[in-house]
């Protein structure tokens, strides 16, 4: 997909690849090559809803680490895409 960054003053367009399965059933985040912010594209598992409700701002890596075992089935790609889906 082509993503346009929503950060004011950045608005960099970038193209990212991820599986349809993650997009429809799991979690997808992409990293903007301009400002390096991660943007949530899909969160069907509610992980990021939970992370904002407990009042602590966590990084994607922290969140993935907290999920431990499960994360092995996802991936963090070199292009900054994070995707995960359950079997
Ligand atoms: Zn950006």
UniProtKB/TrEMBL annotation:
Superkingdom of this protein's organism: Eukaryota
Protein name (record): Zf-DNL-domain-containing protein
Organism of this sequence: Pluteus cervinus
């Amino acid at each position: 997909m082509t993503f346009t960054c929503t950060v004011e003053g950045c608005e960099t367009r970038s193209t990212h690849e991820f599986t349809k399965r993650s997009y429809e059933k799991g979690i997808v985040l992409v990293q903007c090559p301009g400002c390096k912010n991660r943007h949530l594209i899909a969160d069907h598992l509610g992980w990021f809803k939970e992370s904002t409700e407990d009042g602590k701002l966590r990084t994607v890596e922290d969140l993935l680490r907290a999920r431990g075992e499960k994360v092995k089935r996802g991936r963090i790609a070199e292009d900054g895409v994070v995707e995960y889906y359950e079997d």
